[in-house]
Amino acid sequence: MNEDFLITCNRTYDPPTAFLRESNIDVTDIWLWGELRVTVVVAQDCYNQGGQYTRSGPTNYNQDSWINLSKFPISSTRNKFTAIGCDTYAWIKGYSGTAYATGCMSLCSNISDVVEGSCSGIGCCQTAIPKGVMDYRINVSSYFNHKDVYDFNPCSYAFVAEEGTYNFSSKDLKDFTKRNETTQVVLNWAIGNQTCTEAKKDHPQKFACKNNSDCRDSVNGPGYWCNCSEGFEGNPYLPNGCQDINECERNPNLCHKNSTCINLNGAYNCSCLPGYEDDGKEIDGSGCKPIPPPTPPPPIPKSQTTFPLMNRIALGVSVSLLLLLLGISWLYLGLRQRKHTKLKQKFFEQNGGFMLQQQLSRHKGSVETTRIFTAEELMKATNNYHENRILGQGGQGTVYKGILSDNRIVAIKKSRTIDRSQIEQFINEVIVLSQVNHRNVVKLLGCCLETQVPMLVYEFVTNGTLFNHIHHIDHSSTLQWQLRLQIATETAGALSYLHFAASTPIIHRDIKSTNVLLDDNYVAKVSDFGASRLVPLDQTQLTTLVQGTLGYLDPEYFQSSQLTEKSDVYSFGVLLAELLTGKKALSFDRPEAERNLAMHFVLAMKENRLFEILDRRVLNEGNAEQVMEVAMLVKRCLSLKGEERPTMKEVALELEGLKAMEKPPHVKGSISSKETEYLLSRPDDVCLSGANSDSACYDSIKSQVKISVLDDGR
User: Fold this and answer.
1) pTM score > 0.90 for this model?
2) What is the per-residue pLDDT for 570?
3) What CATH superfamily classification does 466-711 receive?
4) Which CATH fold topology does 196-245 show?
């Protein structure tokens, strides 16, 4: 048709190999229904026993794996992105067609933790490919250079593969690429960039679907493809390429013994043999019954009085049938309603409804605002969960905007899954969160337990997420330095309350800028407690399956699975760094050394380069000493050891004090060039010595700031 569909046969290979056009993309299969299969290499990231990176793994492949296509999108339904390893995070991104970036994390500390055949995040993880993707680049890396798992897992691996062709095995942790140097990926192909209707109307002479074929719109990008109509087979793109299937020859037993099979163009028919007639109910001829002997005519009625009697009988039969149909309909609807009610009751019990009712009655007076909503209430509130009511979507579930019958606007979180073994924990969290009453924590109003997965109802916060206000150009102009400091202070106060003032301490476990909401007055509200954990009063740490968001995840928690309140402190430190720099916590668009904001920020502090990475708005409006105090607080929060981090109570108090600082008249406006020069310099002070404390480093920098102000004559 055109060069897009050119296949090059390279005979220098043995056996000869087919490549797409003049590329190095090895094509192994082509299907007429708009798909082809190609071979791609596996990305890997390997280390030796000392934790040193080996650029060439066991099979001498580079770390990255990529593919770039101009025409054929990667099938979103036939492929999965997979990563293998026990110290592994991998991401896949692309820009052609649909721009996207996604990834997953795979962890384990012992090979006994691994579940054979499971890619749920322990040794193996998987995620879907978006629609309309024309290219991808895979990167795979590790957190601790495989030092803790080297004996059974020296490498991380990542690849895209056709779904169903890969089944995870613990053996793959040791030497996956020895058996699988490449994987196979399914691509979609289509004709042109118009729908069937548009192509047939605009270019009837060039329309690709020939006789006896049907046109199908592509489901993964523009264009269309052709398929032989039912009853035909062959190539729908060739004239007379779709030929009739002779069903009668292909299957001699297609029709019943009382009938004979007759082939038709694109179909077949079962015709009754002589002496049989068709009752019209069965297409395979089994309805061919022997023709009965003729019946004698009915006797002639003796009088006309018979007719009124027959009319009355007919009327009675009609009324009886009508009543019978109405009765059946009523019974069906009743049974259906009863089944629906039973199902809701089943879900209510499974989701801990009775347990919650008991807890509510026990806490009566303290949680009287908590409501148990019905499924019908929330369905009506969200207009049957219409897509235009979606506020946001993530790994935990989807959040909808709802309008209750009393016209209150709420946020309704519809989770994806719930662990049935954790129902009691879930109910306890609902009770505790219902009692959380803090102006900077999103209020939990109630829940619905009549659906397969419980739904939570929160107060609606009007001004979006902190992430949008920091990183979207149309919002960032609103975040002045003093407002950023206010948001940080309010968020820290909320976390301090959860850690120390709640009736049962709560570790949020997923602090990030998308989980901090702002109202119309830019008051911060901490949200999304889907990953939170309650801490028993007699415990200081919990052992849990590692959960969180890359870029914000506490490395100590990641390595040990021991969750403490200091894990929230680390995540809050990343959020503070976001507010100071305007940079995302994790971005693969930045140079490799700067991708992780926490590491980049700490390194910049160590090298006295802080003011190189600050957000321009912070530089222009911030009080230098105030900004430096916050930066030093960030550095302490991002300590790799939890014991060296401050508590959230200490963080909140320190930020309150900074917020209360009056900005002196002589530093209104931007930080002066001389101040910047001092702060960008690299003096031989205690900051460059790893042996010295943060406080000593801070005192040194603080003295520089004061000197810079004096030298400027102010």
Assistant:
1) no
2) 95
3) Transferase(Phosphotransferase) domain 1 (1.10.510.10)
4) Laminin (2.10.25)
